[in-house]
Amino acid sequence: MATKSSSAAAAGGKRKAFGKHNEDGRTKAAKTASGKKHIKSESEDNESSDEGSDVEFHTGESTTSPPNESANGSNPAKSGTSSREAHAKQKQLAQERKNAKPLADEVHRTKKLWEKLRRKSHVPKEERQQLVEELFTIITGRVKDFVLKHDAVRAVQTAVKYATPAQRKQIAKELQGTYAQLAESRYAKFLIGKLLVQNDKEIRDIIIPEFYGKVRKLINHAEGSWILDDVYRGVATKEQKANLLREWYGPEFALFRQPKGTEVTGELSKILADEPSKRTTAMKYLFDMANGLIQKKMTGFTMLHDALLQYFLNLNPGTEEFKEFFETVKEDETGDLLKNMAFTKSGARLVCLLLAHGTAKDRKQLLKAYKDTYQLMSGDNHAHAVILAAYDLLDDTVLTSKTIFSEILGKNEENEHIVFIANDLNARTTVLYLFEGMSKALFPASHATDLEILKEIHEIRTNTSKKDPEVRRKELVAAMSPQLLAAIANSPADLVATSFGCQFVTDVLLSATGDKKAALEAIASTAGGDPNAEAPEDAYQALPPHISTTIHGGRMFKTLISGGRFDKATGSVQKCDPPLNFADLLYPVIKDYIVQWATGPSSFTVLALLEASDFSSKKELIKTLEANKKALTKAATEAPAPKKEETEEKPKGKKGKNASAPKGNQGAKLLLEKLDA
């Protein structure tokens, strides 16, 4: 047993010493008895491997070399060469084989040039131009040979980076016919991105058509899938996108293109409307292709999300196809599919539609995938729509407040989350939607897609949701209000510093429920101080503008004093209940500077105080204004004094935007009318 064991150990040592066979003639590393590595040629390896094979399988004797012998059985001391000389010889042989390869000298030169060019800050512009010219003289006419070498392709990418438009087009044309192959290359795929990032239409129209007919192959390729999706998402025209997407509907769409001059559509519903007989085959092909990617966990592609949306839009609710698709999405254990879909336009719409069509149990399971992701989703261009849909569709408002509010609002003491939400164009909708609804002030033209999705799910929820929408909204507002009011009370200056922040404060104070006194007092305190105060000349930086000098600040105070929103239909202010009584909180803060307010940009705030029915110091205010009537008259008739930055000489012959606007402070004029009445 001992002999057999030692023989096996020796054979194992022999195998480790000689390494594995390699048929392409590359050099390999073999460990000597001392643990060092030697580079050996293939011929030596084959000879020693054959010898070891005989010993190991026929004699069974130990073949371990003596300590002072090298792995190939030779002893450097006996042969008259040292270990260092043997290493040098092997290194020389390796270099000779490397030099024997095609374009060896050219690749070596391009790598040297690339080493200089990549250090942009260390190379003057003139020298860089010379290096680029030299690089182009090497690669011109041989670009195809360079781009498939992992080291040489970097030099070509650098050439594209610093090339002129004409030189880039030259490279693009020289590579024509190989882009599908380059997309599958681990390194060459980046060259496609370098060519397309310049947004050259001619280069784009050279590259993208080469992907036609190869979508199924590329989208399933580990390397090619990402470059194909990047091209589809960020570079392709509407027509090119349609051509690529149509290949998801069947092989015939990959083989045959639409005649030139005809409109190309990627919408499956339009294709099936023209040819209803293709529905069965197209839907099956699309589902199989998409499901293959889902099973392989390759779910981050925009093209996949577009295809899934087209599939879902052509399903009939209640059918087996519909149920199978719903289960496919829900069965994604990791939730990667749902998470990835939320961050694309088509994917977000699809998730909203799935929530709308699902049962209460389905909705809970779908939203479970977004745990710890809601805060990120709230600020995304597309994912925030999923949160809005959840507000409108989940009947369990307690679940909504626990899962969504706790993430997007943060902890009670973390006011920075709410300050971010108030000022972010996307995130603000996830809070103010419950207060303002589908108003144009909250959803500008850039968010028109949100309104379309909301209208779509509102129609569907009439059949799938039980709770009254207004009851659901009020419950969510009640759950959210305490934390929002606390944030306003703790960070009033940060919130009123911006237009979005003032709109946020106004909406919350008008529509929130609970004790608002602390929040109202905090907002009133931001109006303190001299509106005309300036920083000392030796100050490190200028003072921030006083809130009374900003349009958004004056509008916020005016609305809070009136105690409600103006309703265009009735022509009156709809008071909130209970009343805010903000006028009595604001006046003590600004009364020492009331004349500056009445003659400045926020004069309408003072006018709102006079018109407020619940203002207890109206007589005192009228008396102060009567005493300063001269200042009011001057402000009402004369143009305001320009600011320092506006005193610089402007080009002659150009009138300002407000050249034809009436001069004088309009708020001061109305105050005078009130006093004279």
UniProtKB/TrEMBL annotation:
Key word Repeat present: yes
Comp. bias (Polar residues): 60-83
Annotated Low complexity bias: 1-12
SUPFAM superfamilies hit by this protein: ARM repeat (SSF48371)
GO CC annotation terms, alphabetical: nucleolus
BP-aspect Gene Ontology terms: regulation of translation
Biased composition (Acidic residues): 44-54
Entries under InterPro entries matching the protein: ARM-like, ARM-type_fold, CPL_dom, PUM-HD, PUM3, Pumilio_RNA-bd_rpt
Pfam hit, one: CPL
Gene Ontology MF terms in the entry: mRNA binding
Function: RNA-binding nucleolar protein required for pre-rRNA processing. Involved in production of 18S rRNA and assembly of small ribosomal subunit.
Record protein name field: Armadillo-type protein
